[in-house]
Amino acid sequence: STFKNPNNKKAWKLIKESDCDKMKIGQVKISEKHCNFFINEGNATSSEIERLVEKVRNGVLNKTGTSLELEIKIIGENI
Predict the structure, then answer these.
(1) Residue 24: which residues within 8 A CB-CB, separation 6 or more?
(2) What is the pTM of this model?
(3) What Rg do the C-alpha atoms of the chain give, in angstroms?
């Protein structure tokens, strides 16, 4: 999973309810099977992945008022 489940809520459900479940940036998209998973379609860059993470996080916050926290850990630094 990309995001932790916030208090008594499911991250995947918040993503779906916020209409973020079909988002895509470059070669990375939200999984059609489970919208808390991100799929690299072949040549996604780390920048594309991080941008989609932020786009989903912002979409959920704007629609539901809930801030999603990453379950994954991003390492390295921006180039």
Answers:
(1) 30, 52
(2) 0.91
(3) 12
Half-sphere exposure in the Cβ direction for 64 (13 Å, CA): 21
Query: CA–CA separation, 17 vs 79, rounded Å?
Result: 34
Evaluate whether 2 touches 53 at the Cβ level (below 8 Å): yes
- What is the Cα–Cα distance from 79 to 63, expressed in whole angstroms? 31
Token code pair at residue 17: 């309810």
In sequence order, which ranges of the chain are alpha helices (DSSP H)? 11-17, 46-64
Query: CA-to-CA distance for 69 and 16, rounded, in angstroms?
Result: 16
- pLDDT, one tens digit per residue, over 39-54 is 999 999 999 999 999 9
